[in-house]
Amino acid sequence: MSLPVVECVPNFSEGRDVKRVEAIVAAMRMEGVRLLDWAMDADLNRAVVTIAGSPAAVVRRRCAAWARPRS
């Protein structure tokens, strides 16, 4: 029996500050979650991160990324 896997593709309103986007990407990394891709677009001021993994792990990483301190 295989375990469920979910994909999550959150979009963040930050596409100009590389350090902030790198912090978001770093928050997505953990055991049980695979970082599939990420991209940032300065013109649209957006960053998109694609992760996949177990449902519980993906939810924890998504919430951790959204909770990153803003400065």
Keyword list:
71 residues, alpha+beta, four-stranded antiparallel β-sheet, 4 strands
Tell me what you see in this structure:
With 71 residues, the protein is α+β, with helices and mostly antiparallel strands. The protein is built from two helices and four strands. Strands 1, 2, 3 and 4 form a four-stranded antiparallel beta sheet that branches. The longest helix is centred in the last third of the chain and has 12 residues. The radius of gyration is 12 Å and the shape is elongated. The mean pLDDT is 88.
**Gap from first CA to last CA:** 45 Å
Give a short account of the largest sheet: 4 strands, antiparallel
Query: Tally the helices: what do you get?
Result: 2
- Cα-atom Rg, whole angstroms? 12 Å
Any idea what the shape is?
A: elongated
The succession of helices and strands, N to C, reads EEHEEH
Helix content: 25-40%
Count of strand segments: 4
Mean pLDDT: 88
Low-confidence stretches: none
Strand content: 25-35%
